[in-house]
Amino acid sequence: MHLLRAKAGSAVDETEAVDLGQTPGDVVFLSAADTELASLAGARAGFGDDFPSLRLANLMQLAHPMSVDLYVESVVANARLVVARVLGGAGYWPYGVEQLVETCRAGSTPLALLPGDDQPDPEFAALGTDLILSRIGVCKVWPVATKSTMASDMPVSGPSSTES
Hints:
Helix content: 25-40%
Number of strands: 7
Low-confidence stretches: 7-12, 138-146, 148-162
Oligomer: single chain
Mean pLDDT: 77
Strand content: 15-25%
């Protein structure tokens, strides 16, 4: 099997593994919604270099199990906080969710799994590695993510996986 380098704006064939080429960062945010990723990248750009570093990745680029393994080993395992908003629940990205949970638990890294819609997901709440963070995620971050108009109004530009 060979690895392909991820390309901005291209669809990923899940039969091919890709390397997003990201370096580790303090905070990792994963989502299948480019508007969320673009909003976070824009918001992070407004902070100085002393603010925690942020890594963003689109789940669609992590469809292949080898892509998940590489990303989890090189980026997630070194993070101080991991947030994943998974549209469609754990069944949408089962291997990825499993690897996030396993890696974050092994490293005592806070993990918040957020549903992609406006309905609570008890499975995600139970899988989060930090009860307080999971409750904060569900109570604070998740409603903002589901109702934010800023994300839907922001144009998507540049790669869907970002380093800052």
